[in-house]
Design brief:
With 146 residues, the chain is of the alpha+beta class. The chain is built from two helices and eight strands, in the order H-H-E-E-E-E-E-E-E-E. The radius of gyration is 23 Å and the shape is globular. The N and C termini lie far apart (69 Å).
Length: 146
């Protein structure tokens, strides 16, 4: 065996092991329902094509990390503006995508799909209901105490 071959063999064995040993699952799938926990500020706006009306809501929700949330906000539906409360459920997939069902105080429901970014500190949102073209974001609230 030549000197080059004797030096290259250990390197090739290590490379071979790296190719056949899978990476840890947590490196590829960091998200779960527990990733959404705490208080978030949010805004969602767009057009409800089915009702032919502009829609916007801005507010705050509190998620329990177990798939439930509740919150308050100010909404504008067409020319009408008012305060609203809501509650709902959510689920987060390992790839950091998820969905939520909002139930507003007036009984109206909305299904939203989302993706978590920035370790769950920010959420990109789209209304998944037919006839709605509405998007928004949510950001985890954190306050510095002086």
């Amino acid at each position: 065996m030549s000197v080059l071959t004797s030096r290259a063999l250990p390197a090739m064995l290590v490379l071979g092991l790296l190719l056949v040993v899978p990476l840890p699952a947590h490196a590829q799938n960091p998200c779960s329902t527990e990733s959404v926990e705490g208080a978030y500020g949010f805004t969602v706006s767009g057009t409800n094509i089915t009702a032919n009306v502009q829609f916007a809501v801005t507010g705050r929700f509190l998620a329990d990390g177990k798939g439930h949330f509740n919150g308050t906000g100010t909404e504008a539906v067409g020319p009408n503006t008012g305060h609203t409360t809501f509650k709902g459920t959510y689920k987060v997939q390992p790839d950091c995508t998820g969905s939520a069902t909002f139930i507003f105080a007036n009984g109206v429901t909305a299904v939203l799909d989302f993706v978590l970014v920035e370790d769950g500190d920010e959420i990109f949102i789209i209304d998944a209901d037919p006839g709605a073209v509405e998007t928004g974001t949510a950001k985890r609230q954190s306050f510095r105490h002086h």
